[in-house]
């Protein structure tokens, strides 16, 4: 999201204290004052639970969180992770979040991290049921809305910056001027990150390549869930292939798994000049390196570790934490919660341009959320003369003007 100089300078302090940027203030103390009292702790070795929406080895979103949990076990002496993956109605029909939490509580868990937006209602119910435990809902906002009990916090990272860089790399590379975006289900988060990719692409197209806005096509297609479920979602392999068949030569993925990149790799092996950018999992480019322009990814280890340490010590104060990258080194595995790893297929010239763009984002010299910006239906997102607030960015009702694709599921 929009990165102010204040937010950039406070990142190190926020990470050190386990808190981050709120919509109201940029100080950890402000979070603590508004979020309630600290959850109880015993100082004993921590058992913590992790609920994953997809397979723990999906080479995507869930695996990134799973590896974040393993990072905690490595760094926090005596800690132990309990995890349950594929926590969704299709893969585990009849299994509820409160039931899963009850089981983790019986195994000694004092902290439970729910990894997906879809777990919102269930983790809220579980937190009320278990006031003696601490809960983190990744991507949620119940602290902001006032629904959260005092033992429930929210955590997310500003992956939008990584998406801007993905869009930038795509627009610098495309020869046809047609970029496809493969999206999951439709909600505020997924529209928000798709918009970020478009803004990065538009910036590269117009300000670096000097092209006319109308000559860039940026089309979003949604599969219906975070990852492919045969018979339930649209097939992402077919949808990525359809993009390439229609002359789109770069596809940016917003899915939890890497199908778009695998399809691009297969097409390149057959002689097609196409590329893709996977999502959320740092090593994803290894699946098809000749097709991979780069990957924006979450690095959950550092924020999970900060939370786990404080829960173990009894000092954690649940809050709404939306962590920006550490632009000093976005790929520092021990610091930055968001990264972008340039892929082998990104040319040296375009990588240099991407480095300049990244530095401009980090310094605040370039603000992708400076107005004027409009939504698809013509309503104003950000008027001229100012930039979008974090709240305006977080709650994202539509795709932006200039993008093709639906802003709603129906």
Automatic annotation (TrEMBL):
Any one GO cellular component localisation term in the record: plasma membrane
All copies of domain ABC transporter substrate-binding protein PnrA-like, residue ranges: 49-203
Keywords from the named record: Signal
Pfam families: Bmp
Protein name (record): ABC transporter substrate-binding protein PnrA-like domain-containing protein
Species of origin: hydrocarbon metagenome
Lineage per the UniProt record: unclassified sequences, metagenomes, ecological metagenomes
């Amino acid at each position: 999201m929009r990165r102010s100089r204040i937010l950039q300078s406070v990142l190190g302090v926020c990470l050190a204290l386990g808190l981050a940027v709120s919509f109201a203030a940029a100080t950890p103390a402000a979070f603590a004052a508004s979020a309630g009292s600290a959850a109880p702790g015993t100082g004993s070795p921590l058992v913590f639970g992790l609920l994953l929406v997809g397979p723990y080895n999906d080479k995507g979103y869930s695996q990134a969180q799973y590896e974040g949990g393993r990072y905690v076990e490595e760094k926090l002496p005596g800690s132990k992770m309990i995890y349950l993956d594929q926590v969704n109605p299709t893969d585990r029909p009849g299994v509820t979040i409160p039931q899963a939490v009850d089981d983790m509580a019986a195994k000694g868990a004092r902290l439970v991290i729910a990894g997906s937006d879809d777990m919102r209602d269930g983790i809220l119910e579980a937190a009320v049921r278990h006031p003696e435990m601490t809960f983190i809902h990744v991507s949620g906002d119940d602290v902001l809305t006032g629904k959260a009990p005092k033992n429930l916090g929210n955590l997310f990272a500003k992956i939008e910056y990584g998406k801007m860089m993905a869009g930038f790399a795509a627009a610098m590379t495309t020869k046809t001027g047609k970029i496809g975006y493969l999206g999951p289900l439709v909600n505020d988060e997924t529209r928000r990150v798709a918009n970020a990719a478009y803004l990065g692409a538009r910036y590269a197209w117009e300000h670096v390549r000097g092209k006319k806005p109308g000559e860039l096509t940026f089309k979003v297609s949604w599969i219906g869930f975070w990852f492919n479920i045969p018979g339930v979602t649209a097939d992402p392999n077919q949808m990525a292939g359809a993009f390439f068949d229609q002359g789109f030569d770069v596809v940016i993925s917003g899915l939890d798994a890497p199908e778009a990149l695998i399809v691009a790799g297969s097409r390149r092996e057959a002689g097609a000049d196409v590329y893709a950018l996977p999502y959320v999992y740092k090593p994803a480019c290894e699946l098809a390196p000749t097709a991979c322009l780069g990957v924006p990814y979450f690095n959950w280890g550092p924020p999970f570790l900060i939370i786990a340490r404080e829960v173990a010590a009894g000092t954690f104060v649940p809050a709404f934490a939306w962590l920006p990258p550490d632009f000093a080194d976005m790929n520092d595995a021990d610091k930055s919660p968001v990264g972008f790893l340039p892929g082998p297929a990104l040319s040296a010239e375009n990588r240099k341009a991407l480095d300049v763009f990244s530095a401009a984002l980090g310094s605040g010299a370039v603000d992708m959320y400076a107005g004027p910006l409009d939504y698809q239906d013509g309503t104003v997102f950000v008027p001229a003369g100012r930039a979008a607030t974090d709240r305006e960015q977080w709650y994202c009702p539509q795709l932006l003007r200039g993008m093709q694709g639906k802003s709603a599921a129906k």
